[in-house]
Amino acid sequence: MSKKNGLEVGFERTLFASRWLMAPMYLGLVLALLMVVVIFFRELMYYVPQMFTMEMDKGILAVLSLIDLTLAANLLGIVIFSGYENFVSKLDIDENAERPEWMGTVDFAGLKMKLIASIVAISAIHLLKRFMEIGKPVGELFDGTELMWLVIIHLVFIVSGVMMALMDYINAKVKAASKY
């Protein structure tokens, strides 16, 4: 085993410390999460006064919008916590704290799968909202071409998720086979 020179050791320490350059980005994502929370409550306060007079279709669209925002917030939370723990530093949280089971266990492959699953769910909700608007005046003209592209994009997200899962499956099989 060769001994490393001082320049190489210093370079590697600098590279390792550079992971902290990502920390401000995670703080920015916390602010983005706050933005989603504010938008959620703004939407909720818009719809609550209408709940006794709202038509069923509009009520379902309102609920889907709130679910959409909640899924986006969940996605941000997963990226913030998993990304920070995977790429910057482990969270030092009190043992008695209510730590979700997945925290500290989601590796990069798991993070990718949760990310694509959330994107597919958000895309599906958006697509469902557009399907429910067919034939109704919604303030802007409903375009069949737009719907076609929404379906195509949604299918691309689904195929991407399946391909990512397949790659992770193959990678796990190769790692397991190389142990023997």
From TrEMBL:
<protein>
    <recommendedName>
        <fullName>UPF0114 protein KVU_0446</fullName>
    </recommendedName>
</protein>
<keyword id="KW-1003">Cell membrane</keyword>
<keyword id="KW-0472">Membrane</keyword>
<keyword id="KW-1133">Transmembrane helix</keyword>
<feature type="transmembrane region" description="Helical">
    <location>
        <begin position="61"/>
        <end position="84"/>
    </location>
</feature>
<feature type="transmembrane region" description="Helical">
    <location>
        <begin position="147"/>
        <end position="170"/>
    </location>
</feature>
<keyword id="KW-0812">Transmembrane</keyword>
<dbReference type="InterPro" id="IPR020761">
    <property type="entry name" value="UPF0114_bac"/>
</dbReference>
<dbReference type="Pfam" id="PF03350">
    <property type="entry name" value="UPF0114"/>
</dbReference>
<comment type="similarity">
    <text>Belongs to the UPF0114 family.</text>
</comment>
<dbReference type="InterPro" id="IPR005134">
    <property type="entry name" value="UPF0114"/>
</dbReference>
<feature type="transmembrane region" description="Helical">
    <location>
        <begin position="20"/>
        <end position="41"/>
    </location>
</feature>
<dbReference type="GO" id="GO:0005886">
    <property type="term" value="C:plasma membrane"/>
</dbReference>
